[in-house]
Structures are given as C-alpha cells and as structure tokens.
Specification:
The structure holds three protein chains of three kinds. By secondary structure, chain A is mainly α. Chain A is 75% helix and 0% strand. The N and C termini of chain A lie close together (6 Å). Chain B has one domain: Orthogonal Bundle (ABC transporter involved in vitamin B12 uptake, BtuC). Chain B is built from 13 helices and no strands. The radius of gyration of chain B is 20 Å and the shape is globular. Chain C has a single domain, classed as P-loop containing nucleotide triphosphate hydrolases (Rossmann fold, 3-Layer(aba) Sandwich). In chain C, the strands form three sheets. Chain C has a six-stranded mixed sheet, with helices on both faces. In chain C, helix 3 runs parallel beside helix 5, helix 4 packs antiparallel against helix 5 and helix 5 runs parallel beside helix 6. The longest helix of chain C is centred in the C-terminal third of the chain and has 16 residues. Classes of the chains: A mainly alpha, B mainly alpha, C alpha/beta. At the A-B interface, helix 7 and helix 14 of A face helix 6 and helix 13 of B. Chain A: One of its GO terms (biological process) is siderophore-iron import into cell.
Chain lengths: 342, 333, 272
C-alpha cells in the first residue's frame, strides 16, 4: 500500500530529509574515524590518530595507511552497493524481505567465483567479472521466481525459496572446496564475508561496474517510484515496466556482484539498510535511495569495527557480525504485526 | 473389512520402504573403498565371515549405517510431526532454525564453551531454546502462519553465525573436531550419542502410538479436532516436545541434515493413503534417505568423502525449490 | 433410528472475548431439547462466537457452558465429543481424503488407543452415510465433490459421532439454493430423529423456515428468543439489520415470510 503522495511529492529534497541525511552523514564520518582508529591489533587509537596527522610511530603509520585505510574504503563501497541493491530489489519485488543475501544473489555470486577459481582464474578483474555474472544469474532467478503466479505477493515463500537456493549453492561450493585443497584456501578467502586484507586494486576493478549501477539508478528512480502504484498505473504514466525491471535487475547484479567481489557474501546488509532508511524516508523509493547512501556504508563499517572489537585480539568474520545484527531486524520486521507490504 | 481396505495401501508403502531401507543398508555395507561381496556381507551379519570382512562390515560400516539410519528416521519423524502440528508442509525443524541452534549448542559443547554437558544434552537444549524462541516471536499464532517460519529463518541465521564465532575463537584442533557438525556428517558421531538417540526413538515411538489418533485429527481445523474430542493443547505440547527431542538427539549424531525432515514425509505422504499422518513411513523413508545419501557421499568421489549434509542439500534443495515455486499450491500455509 | 440418549446444553452468563475485545457479554442461552435452534443476527454480532463457545472451541472468560449441568471445560474432551458434534465453518481437509475416511473420523470419540474399529462403529458409519445420503460418494476424494456434497459428507461425519447434540456454523454458506435446501432438509430429518440442533444461519428467511426456536443477537447480546412465528416482526428485522420490511405468512408452512425489504420506512411517504 503506497499513499499517493509517494509519487505526487516533488522530487526535490525536503528539509526533513536533508536533516536526516546530514545526521546520517555525520554518523558515517564518526564510523569512518572509528574504523581508522580502532583495531584488534596492538596499535592504540592514540597512535593511530597521530599517524593520521602525519606523525606517530612507524608501525601505526603502516597499519593506518596500508591496512585500515584500504579496509575502510572497501567497507564504504561495499555498504553503499549493498544498501542500494537491497532497496531496489525490495521496491521492485514489493517485498520488504527481498534482500540479495537472503534471496541467494550473493550465494550465486560466491558460487560463480568458486567455480572460476577452481578452473584456474586468479586475477582480481576476472574474479570481479565472474562475481557479477553470478549475481546476474541469481537476480534473474529471483525475478523469474517473483513472476511465478502468486509468489510475487507471498514474501515468506519467496525468501524461503531464496534461503533454499542459498543453501544449495553453499553446498555446491563446499563440494568444490572438497575437490581441490589448493583452490579451497583461495575460495575461502573470497567467499568468507570479510573486508580485511583485500587489496585496493580490487576496488579499482569494481568501480566501473558500481558507477554504471549508480547511473542506472539515477535513470530509473522516477519510473520505479511510479511502479510502486502498480504496473498498470506505471504504464498509465508513460513508463515501461519491463524495461525498468530489466534495468533494475542489471543494476542490482552489478552492485551485488561488486560487493561480493569486494567483501564476499554479506547477508542481511541489504535488509537492514533499507529498513532503517525507509523508517525515515517513508514510502518514496527515491528518498529511501538517498538515505541508503550514507546509511549503507555506516552499517557495514560499523559492523566491521565491531568485528574487530568484540573478540579482540582476534577478529570475527564480518559476515558473522552482519548476520548477528541483521537477524534481529528480520525478526523485528516479522514481529511488527502483519507483514508490511511495499 | 473396511479398515483392512483402508490400510492396504499404507501397509504396502511401509513394506516397500522397509525393503528399500534393507537394500540401501546392505549396499552401503558392501560398497566403499573396500568392496565386500553382498553374500559376504550377509555371511558377516550371520556370523560366518573372516575377521577382516567382519571388521569392515560391522565395525567400520555397520555402526555408521546404524547411526545414519537412526538419525534419518528421527529427523524425518520430527519433521512429519512438526508439519502436522503447524499444518504447513514447510514447517520442518531445519527450516525453522532448530537444527542450526542444536548444532550451535553441540559445537559449544565440543569446543568446550559453556557447560560441560554431553553434545546430546547440549543439542537438545539448543533445539528447545530455538523452538521456544520461535514460539515467543511468533506470538499468539503459535505454529500457524508465516511468522513462525520467518522467525525460524532469523533464529537459524543467528545460530549459524554463533557457530562460526565459536569455531573462529578456539584452537584449530577443537574447530576441526566440531566442523563436521556444521555441515552434517556421520563421521563425527560418538557411540554414546547414538545410544541416547535410540532410547529417544523408542520413547517417541511409544508415545506417538498413544497419541496417533489425536494427531490424525490435527489435519483438520482446530475446531474439528476439538469437536472430535482431541485434547489439542496436550497433543500439541507432546508432539512439539517429541519433535524437538528427536531433532536434538539426531543432530547430536549427524549434525544439521535438515532436508531429510522435509523430503521423507513428502515421499511418505505420496506413497501412503491420505487421511493419516504417515509417521512410520516417514521414519522408514528418512532412514533410507540418510543411508543412501551417506553411501553416495562415500563412493561418489572416492577416496574423497563428501559429508552427508552436503549430499542431502544438493539433492533436496531443488525439490524444495520446486515445491516453493510451483504456481498454485493450496496446501502451503 | 431414534436416539434414546439426550443431553442438554446451556450457556450460563458467559462472556466471550477475542484477545481483549469482548464479543459477547453475559449471555445465557439454553437449547430446547429435540428442537432446531437458529442463531441469527447481523455480521459481527457474535453469533458464531456464541456457537463456538457452546461447542467449547472458544473458552469463555467468565461464566460456564453447561453440558448436562456440568461445566463443559471440566469434562474430558472425549466424553464431550460423544455428546456434542460440531460442523465448523472452516472445514478444510487434507488433500485426497475420501468421504469414507472423513466419516470414519467421526467415530474417534468412541475409540480408545486399544479399542479399534468395532461392529458398533461400523453400524454408526453405515447409518451416517445413509442419513446424509453420501453412500455413492464414499470413495470419492472430498476435493472432487461439489459444495453441497462436501457439506453432506461433513454432516455425515458429525452424525457418525452419534451425539444427541449437533451444532452447525453457517452450514449453508457458499451453497446455491438447491444445495441449501438439501442441507436444511437433512438437518430437519436429524432433528426428527431426536437430535438437538443449533445452527448459525446467515439468512433470516431460511431460519424462519427451518428453525423451531430462534435466538436473535445484536452487538453481542441476545435481544429476543423464541419460536420464529412469535418473535419475528418488522420491528425485530429493523433492530437487527436496520431495514424495513413487511411480513406475510407462508401459505404452505405457516412460517413468517419477509417481503418488500427496503432501507427507508416507506418510499411512498418520502416522495410526497
């Protein structure tokens, strides 16, 4: 159910949204600082701060610029991509639970990477491309599934199907890993949800795809908002639902594929971020997308900082932390009376 | 006369499943890295074989097959029970997170976190905790409706994450010892857990025979069940308790091989006559599934062994997807 | 077959609530033995809730439902099921279940976990399928039947319970006219055999035609009770449904007939 004002409202930036956006941006900058200053290792926040200002001990300098800096950048981009992808997928499937991770898109991407590695691929660009292909296949499956009669308006059945698909792909991935011990270690590096120790070159190989994804979002945001009124209404407003669906699918695949190439499959980020954004932005997908820009990176980086601190001096996998944060949000959505619809 | 007619198809189905189970078990005893001729297997079982064959058939394979058979039967009966109680084919312990929680608790026991209880007891505690949590979150709807399932998915995710946390926090040896549980394997069983599981199964069989008739009425709406004199609350609590018990004990033996709980009752329902809850057939089918999946895992890429949980996931998931994606499906929720 | 056994069912000052919302407050109703009682009233007046309360499906917050003078919620459920059968509104059955399977379920209250299908069970079964006229349908799956046939099968199950009391919740909803009459006549037959019947009926006209006793409810209260011929009046119809009508007497049966139903007191008067 979407009130008319969702579409009737002007696309300009209302002041309330601006305030929220600024607050979120401020929180994000705090999280970025925390990500640079805190770690599981022996470098103290004070030394790290000094290193940021250009002095401080050598080891602090190394840790901040060579380890935490890239890690923070990768976290920012991953969060951005996953948050937007989640919001898009939920809006298009009209299902608040449609999250790329839960629906098996991330697992598809991870499985594709595992296959590629098993067949000898090892450079970052190729891996990114393969991850995107896998995500595209996963997305196409999800879209096909939502087009099945009756499944589109049955959120639970859809995410159960997604969970099953994820389980299947994970089992296949584990089997591939059993086949080849050498490949297994590399596969594990790619498919464990983590942004630690990933090279910055990876970032440059994913940026073009993310840029294209963002461009598509800029193009289809308005027709997508119109589609919230139903496909017939969107056609009435002069849009082409089929074309929009195709573009969104492409965009989600590019974003999720890039994020998976960067950080491995992270489930629940695409659920939590749009959930928070919607709480402030209301039903208009355009406002939600705007808010996802700062919230997505903040959530991923925040989770990453937690993953360093909870179990210090060792680290937890980031995917574990996002699951621990995300699952309660899933439960909260379900607990909130009747299943909310989009 | 009428009754005999009613039960003919179900009797046939049970006979067929029993035969399949025996055949699967015998092949599993004869096939593997060392092949034993089927006649020698029979000879060994009858106590007329050389010590080497005896060792392979009884020690190596027999105990493993027994563990698979018992845990498969327990998972399947637990699944059938929960489906009946929830009136939803999808509501199996695996899907609502009970397997994962039991695994997390069992892993905690193996890696030495928390109480120093045996894996069986811990798995049971985990299963019970997840079930009560799912109920608490589902609110007054109980096992009915989607909330129960989504709550279970969330609980399963948390438990899975918790398992990973524990494995990443302990020494590599302890983690390796606990790993099989996380994927589902018959390699990690302890004889002790198998004994406890068989006791649980016997207990469950007796109780289920007693409440069987009441369970059958649960296929209708609550009102019909009450009108037929079923003590709904008592049956629900007992049934759910047994489902949790069987799942927990099975997980302590084989880990989360969840899809057996969905596939076996499905097959049993197809074979048996509608109108009765096919508990026996489900158990037989589950045992057969488990033995076959383990056999496949051992022999498919021999000498490489694929854990039984991975096999059931690869075989079972497409079927579950098919159920979920079939256009019209009136028996779902 | 005439039932020698009888049983009385009464609600004594019961209050029924869904969650915190009170649907019916301080109701007292006694079912006249051997008669067909119709519970009527507008949507949401609590008539189904009252029936479910009488059938112990819905436990009252205060007050008691008395079966033969004893609190129905204290009696063992099986014992109650031997005296009281219910045909609920939501009667879904497992896929592929046959009519015979369904009717056999009606014998459950008479079976123990050691007591299997007996000769007496078989007699009750035969009687039920005959009474509800589903003999030819016995081996058909419920989901292949028409609405009227399916409803007869469910009634057969309730009959197989061999209870002196039979409660039905909107037994003819979603049935076409022919099937409605089929079901109502079956209910009259059962009453003629000595059963005490209570049913929630949506349609006031059918209630007038087929009930001996009528309980008229509005907003959770019983506003009038008695034989339809005595209590149904244009005033009652207006109180219940907010419409005006005239009453005639059915020349064939003597039961009241509602005619000229309209929202305004008189179209003619308004025109002037």
């Amino acid at each position: 159910m979407v009130p008319n004002r969702a579409v009737a409202s002007r696309a300009s930036f209302p002041s309330r949204l601006l305030t929220t956006w600024l607050v979120a941006g401020f929180l994000l900058s705090l999280v970025v600082m925390a990500s640079l200053l805190y770690g599981a290792g022996p470098v103290s926040p004070g030394d790290a701060f000094a290193a940021l200002l250009g002095n401080g001990p050598d080891n602090a300098h190394f840790v901040v610029s060579e380890l935490r800096g890239p890690r923070t950048m990768i976290g920012l981009v991953t969060g951005l991509a996953l948050g937007l992808a989640g919001a898009l997928l939920q809006s298009m499937t009209r299902n608040p639970l449609a999250e790329p991770g839960l629906l098996g898109v991330s697992a598809g991407s991870g499985f594709a990477v595992a296959l590629a590695i098993l067949f000898g691929a090892s450079n970052a660009t190729l891996t990114t491309f393969v991850a995107q292909l896998g995500a595209l296949a996963g997305c196409a499956l999800v879209i096909a599934a939502t087009r099945v009669q009756g499944l589109g308006n049955d959120p639970v059945r859809l995410i159960l199907a997604g969970a099953t698909l994820s389980g299947l792909l994970l089992a296949l991935t584990s089997m591939l890993m059993l086949m080849d011990q050498r490949a297994a270690d590399e596969i594990r590096f790619w498919i464990t949800g983590s942004i630690a120790g990933k090279p910055l070159t990876l970032l440059s190989s994913t940026l073009p795809a993310i840029a294209v994804g963002l461009l598509i979002i800029a193009m289809v945001a308005r027709p997508l908002a119109a589609m919230a009124l139903g496909e017939k209404a969107a056609v009435g407003l002069g849009h082409h639902p089929g074309r929009i669906r195709f573009l969104i699918t492409l965009s989600v695949a590019l974003l999720v594929g890039s994020a998976t190439a960067l950080a491995g499959p992270l489930i629940f980020v695409g659920l939590v971020v749009p959930f928070i954004a919607r709480a402030f932005a209301g039903p208009d997908i355009r406002k939600t997308l705007w808010l996802c820009l700062p919230i997505g990176p903040a959530v991923v980086l925040g989770a990453d900082v937690l993953s360093r601190l909870i179990a210090a001096p060792s680290e937890l996998p980031l995917g574990v932390v996002t699951a621990l944060i995300g699952a309660p949000v899933l439960l909260a959505i379900v607990r909130a009376g009747r299943m909310p619809s989009l | 006369m009428l009754l005999a007619l009613t039960d003919k198809r179900t009797g046939l189905a049970n006979g067929f499943l029993l035969l399949a189970l025996v055949a699967a078990s015998l092949s599993s005893m004869s096939l593997g890295t060392i092949s034993v001729a089927p006649l020698d297997v029979l000879g060994s079982l009858l106590g007329k074989a050389d010590p080497m064959t005896d060792f392979v058939v009884k020690e190596l394979r027999g105990s493993r097959i027994l563990a698979g058979l018992l845990s498969g039967a327990a998972l399947a009966v637990a699944g059938c029970l929960m489906q009946t109680l929830a009136r939803n084919r999808l509501a199996t312990p695996g899907i609502i997170g009970i397997d994962n929680a039991a695994t997390a608790f069992a892993v905690a026991s193996v890696v030495g976190i928390g109480l120093s209880l045996a894996p069986s007891a811990m798995a049971l505690a985990g299963a019970a905790a997840a079930t009560s949590l799912a109920f608490g979150l589902a609110g007054a709807n109980g096992t009915r409706g989607y909330r129960f399932i989504v709550a279970g998915i969330g609980i399963g995710a948390i438990a899975g994450a918790a398992t990973q946390v524990m494995l990443s926090r302990v020494a590599i040896d302890a983690a390796n010892a606990a790993y099989p549980w996380t994927v589902g394997s018959l390699n990690a069983r302890s004889g002790h857990s198998v004994v406890i599981l068989s006791i649980g199964l016997v207990l469950a069989a007796i109780l289920l025979a007693i409440i069987n008739r009441g369970l059958n009425t649960l296929q209708f709406s609550d009102a019909v069940a009450i009108a037929l004199g079923t003590r709904l609350r008592a049956i629900r609590i007992l049934g759910l308790g047994l489902s949790v018990l069987l799942t927990g004990l099975a997980v302590s033996v084989c880990g989360p091989v969840g899809l057996v709980a969905l596939l076996a009752p499905e097959l049993a329902r197809t074979l048996c006559r509608p109108g009765k809850v096919p508990l026996l057939a489900s158990g037989l089918a589950g045992a057969t599934f488990m033995v076959l999946a383990d056999l496949l895992g051992r022999t498919l890429f021999s000498p490489l062994e694929i854990p039984v949980g991975i096999i059931t996931a690869i075989v079972g998931s497409p079927y579950l997807l098919w159920i979920l994606l079939k256009p019209s499906n009136r028996s779902l929720t | 077959m005439n039932l020698t056994e009888t049983a009385t069912l009464a609600a004594d000052n019961i209050t029924l609530a869904h969650r915190k919302f009170t649907v019916a407050k301080n109701l007292s109703v006694t079912l006249p033995p051997g008669k067909v009682t119709a519970i009527v009233g507008p949507n949401g007046c609590g008539k189904s809730t009252l029936l479910n309360g009488l059938a112990r499906i819905h436990a009252p917050d205060t007050g008691t439902v008395l079966l033969d003078g004893k609190d129905i919620h204290v009696l063992p459920s099986k014992e109650v099921a031997r005296k009281l059968a219910l045909l609920p509104q939501d009667n879904t059955a497992p896929e592929g279940l046959t009519v015979a399977d369904l009717v056999r379920f009606g014998r459950q209250p008479h079976q123990g976990w050691m007591k299997q299908w007996s000769r007496k069970d078989q007699q009750a079964f035969d009687h039920a399928v005959t009474a509800a006229d589903v003999i030819e349908l016995q081996d058909r799956a419920l989901d292949t039947l028409s609405g009227g046939q399916r409803q007869r099968a469910w009634i057969a199950m309730a009959v197989a319970q061999e209870t002196p009391l039979l409660l039905l919740d909107e037994p003819t909803s979603a049935l076409d006219l022919g099937h409605q009459i089929e079901v109502f006549e079956l209910i009259r037959q059962l009453a003629a055999q000595g059963k005490t019947v209570a049913m929630v009926v949506h349609d006031l006209a059918s209630a007038c035609r087929y009930a001996d006793h009528m309980v008229a409810m509005k907003a959770g209260k019983v506003i009038m009770e008695g034989p339809p011929g005595e209590i149904v009046s244009p005033e009652l119809v207006h109180t219940l449904y907010g419409v005006h009508c005239d009453l005639l007497e059915d020349p064939a049966t003597g039961s009241p007939l509602l005619v000229n139903m309209r929202r305004e007191r008189s179209d003619h008067a308004r025109c002037q």
